[in-house]
Amino acid sequence: MKTVPAMLALLAVMLTACSELQYYTGIRPATEFPEGCSVDLLMTELHDTRSMNKDELQQTLRTWEQEFQVEPSDDHRLRLALLYAAGDDSVRDPGRAQELLTEAANALDNPGDRELAAMVRQFLDEQIVANRKINDLNKQTAVQIKRIAELEQQLRALMNIEQKIQQRDNPVGVGNDN
Questions:
Q1: What is the spatial distance between Cα 81 and Cα 99, in angstroms, rounded to a whole number?
Q2: What domain range is 73 assigned to?
Q3: What pLDDT digit, counting tens, does each position of 14-33 carry?
């Protein structure tokens, strides 16, 4: 008879656990995506460029530029900006990407597209800052290398002077016959 109270306690625990599950099963996605959301398509197209060789990339770039010129839609603008911002080095042009994203900043209708554009602009801004820091460090390094060369030249000149002084004080071929 001791098993009945134990089973009732176990049943109570199980029912309590199940009541918690009901709370979680009622959760639905925070945002329902509107028709025409293109972020997934844009990212898939960018991903597809990863397997292209340089000639295919250049052709894709020309095609996307032409499509954008014919129809300057948000999708074409973002697709082109993504390729310029995050594509292979052979097609990367952060300045052009910034230009396209700046033009699109207020014109994008889709919240997902606006968020993607904001993220890419932030990425480009950070990249520009990092490139500036690298350029500053390269300039500092060049100055330091030049200074090292100057110091090495001065050291060689001092060593030559020291050798001349030693040769003058101890002439070669003159012996001390004391």
A1: 8
A2: 39-134
A3: 555 554 444 444 444 434 44
